[in-house]
């Protein structure tokens, strides 16, 4: 490298070896030292500065008036335009262009285009650093403030799409009040772009700067505003049930003064969503009741929609299917994409209209309308695709996969789960990736590849549970069913024991009837028929209490089959026939086909 740089000069072996030793083989340092040797006429290696930083500083010092232009450019950033540096320096065109040409000739800057349309870039980041570090701190602050003000006043388009640039300059200038405002704008923009990690950084920096501003009349209100903006970003990256989410919303609740306003609603909504995602549904239900009441008193239609959002979720997972249907239907009817999609960035990180359709679909699947459920869940996915909002699409796919699993639509579930995995991998949604892997595993196991499918289900469940607890009991039960198919009843019963224990603590009982049915099936496999019958009877009682006709049909089919095996055909037929006769659709689904086959076999 030294030979190529000094091809027209004869440097001794001693000098070349000295350059190699002094630079440690660092390419930029090799280039700098060789250049300095040539500029000094090949004088001894001892005349070379001992560090790269010193070498770069020495080269900048030899640039004369162009040195200050290089320093101002270094404050602006690695890249800058001619129009920007001209506005910041306030220099006339001719002297500025001479200085920039000098910097280009000295290999300090790379140039593209001609002034006034030229763009510049420091050839090496370390050169920029050297120019920047050569400035006194007070001078740096003055220049950063100047750059920030120029961007704000003269480059509105840049300020609108890159507010983090202004935030950076005002931060470095010590203008914390202006910096907070632009970090907040940068966080808002990152959320719209689904840049959740960037949003966390931007909002967190704003909060940190705000804490250093001292007591100001509006400080608490601004801190509360930033907390409720940071919350949804943390949900996306850390998971809604994480300690970070709980901490930021607890901080927000502590900040609000108890007044009934939108800030209080957002703070309480965050605590509600954390409680629900953590599997503490009794606490979440209390929060949801408070939220809907507060929203209705405030009379804001967007907050009322989010109040119903909280209610349809808690009602569904708590097995109150009538209320879940009522609130999700209100959500669907009240939702307006143009006005309400922005709520995704202020609350849960997903679109409320998508969630209303998707949660309503699960509710219909449980109530005994499998075809309507699949149609509504497909509408949720379609709506999410039109919004071009990745997390809303992931949520729609997750809920749709639950609907397809309940309806036992193996191939459709496999296709959807595969897409969910890819989407979640692309956007780094670990919980959703876990859900996708789980449902792909279920489809694989349901197709006969039991060991491979169960392994995937276990992997997906572990990923999912690291972030979220709600629906975990359901997933444990689905896994237990696969264990039963693999003739591992003891493992299945242990999983069901864990699932039922979780429902007792959390209040998440929407799948409880199926857990009792599965337990009866596993006990029957071990020859414990009396205990099995008690489980099926319990499943029927729970499902009737929830009006969950799909789960009632499954439990009745299992109990009827058990009675048939004991020669009690008339009782079995009398139990199953009226439940089967209730259904008006979905006769092609496996549950209804199984019931019909058994009824045909029981016919006198």
Radius of gyration: 33 Å
Mean pLDDT: 91
Biggest sheet layout: 3 strands, antiparallel
Q: Helix content range of the residues, please?
A: over 70%
Strand content: under 5%
Q: Which stretches of 5+ consecutive residues score pLDDT under 50? A: 5-9, 42-48
Describe this protein with a few key phrases.
604 residues; mainly alpha; three-stranded antiparallel sheet; 3 strands; 76% helix; elongated
Strand-helix topology:
Blueprint: H1 2-5, H2 13-23, H3 27-39, H4 52-61, H5 66-76, E1 79-81, H6 82-89, H7 93-105, E2 109-112, E3 119-122, H8 125-133, H9 137-154, H10 156-161, H11 163-172, H12 176-192, H13 196-211, H14 219-238, H15 243-255, H16 262-277, H17 281-298, H18 301-317, H19 321-334, H20 337-340, H21 343-346, H22 352-367, H23 370-387, H24 390-406, H25 410-427, H26 430-446, H27 450-465, H28 472-485, H29 489-506, H30 512-525, H31 529-546, H32 549-565, H33 569-582, H34 590-602
Antiparallel strand pairs: 1-3, 2-3
């Amino acid at each position: 490298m030294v030979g190529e740089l000094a091809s027209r000069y004869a440097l001794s072996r001693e000098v070349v070896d000295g350059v190699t030793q002094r630079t440690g083989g660092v390419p930029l340092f090799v280039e700098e030292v060789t250049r300095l040797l040539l500029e000094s006429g090949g004088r001894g290696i001892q005349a070379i500065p001992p560090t790269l930083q010193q070498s770069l500083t020495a080269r900048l010092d030899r640039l004369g008036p162009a040195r200050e232009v290089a320093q101002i450019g270094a404050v602006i950033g690695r890249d800058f335009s001619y129009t920007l540096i001209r506005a910041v320096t306030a220099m006339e065109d001719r002297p500025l262009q001479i200085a920039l040409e000098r910097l280009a000739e000295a290999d300090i800057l790379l140039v593209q285009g001609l002034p006034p349309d030229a763009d510049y870039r420091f050839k090496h980041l370390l050169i920029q650093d050297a120019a920047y570090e050569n400035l006194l701190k007070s001078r740096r602050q003055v220049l950063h403030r100047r750059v920030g003000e120029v961007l704000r006043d003269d480059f509105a388009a840049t300020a609108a799409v890159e507010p983090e640039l202004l935030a950076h300059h005002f931060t470095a200038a010590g203008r914390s009040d202006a910096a907070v405002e632009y970090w907040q704008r940068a966080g808002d923009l990152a959320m719209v772009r689904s840049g959740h990690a960037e949003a966390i950084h931007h909002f967190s920096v704003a909060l940190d700067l705000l804490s250093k501003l001292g007591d100001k009349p509006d400080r608490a209100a601004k801190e509360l505003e930033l907390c409720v903006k940071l919350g949804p970003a943390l949900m996306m990256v850390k998971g809604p049930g994480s300690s970070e989410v709980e901490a930021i919303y607890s901080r927000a609740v502590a900040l609000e003064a108890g007044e009934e306003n939108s800030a209080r609603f957002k703070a309480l909504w965050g605590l509600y969503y954390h409680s629900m995602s953590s599997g503490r549904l009794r606490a979440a239900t209390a929060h949801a009741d408070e939220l809907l009441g507060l929203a209705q008193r405030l009379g804001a239609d967007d907050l009322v929609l989010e109040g119903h959002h909280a209610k349809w979720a808690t009602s569904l997972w708590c097995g109150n299917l009538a209320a879940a249907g009522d609130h999700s239907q209100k959500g669907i009817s009240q939702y307006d994409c143009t006005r309400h999609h922005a709520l995704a960035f202020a609350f849960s990180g997903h679109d409320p209209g998508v969630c209303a359709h998707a949660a309503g679909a699960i509710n219909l699947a449980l109530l005994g309308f499998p075809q309507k459920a699949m149609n509504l869940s497909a509408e949720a996915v379609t709506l999410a695709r039109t919004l071009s909002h990745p997390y809303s699409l992931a949520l729609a796919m997750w809920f749709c996969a639950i609907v397809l699993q309940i309806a036992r639509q193996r191939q459709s579930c496999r296709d959807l789960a595969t897409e969910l995995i890819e989407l979640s991998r692309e956007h780094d949604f670990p919980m959703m990736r876990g859900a996708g892997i789980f449902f792909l595993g279920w489809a694989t196991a349901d197709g006969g590849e039991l060991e491979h499918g169960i392994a995937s289900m276990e992997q997906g469940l572990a990923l999912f549970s690291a972030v979220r607890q709600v629906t975990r009991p359901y997933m444990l039960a689905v896994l237990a069913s696969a264990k039963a198919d693999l003739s591992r009843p003891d493992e299945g019963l242990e999983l069901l024991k864990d699932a039922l224990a979780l429902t007792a603590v959390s209040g998440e009982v929407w799948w409880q009837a199926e857990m009792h049915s599965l337990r009866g099936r596993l006990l029957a496999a071990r020859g414990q028929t009396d205990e099995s019958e008690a489980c099926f009877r319990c499943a029927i009682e729970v499902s009737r209490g929830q009006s969950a006709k799909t789960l009632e049909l499954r439990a009745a089919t299992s109990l009827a089959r058990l009675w048939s095996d004991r020669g009690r055909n008339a009782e079995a037929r009398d139990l199953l026939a009226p439940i089967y006769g209730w259904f008006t659709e979905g006769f092609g689904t496996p549950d209804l086909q199984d019931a019909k086959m058994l009824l045909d076999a029981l016919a006198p």
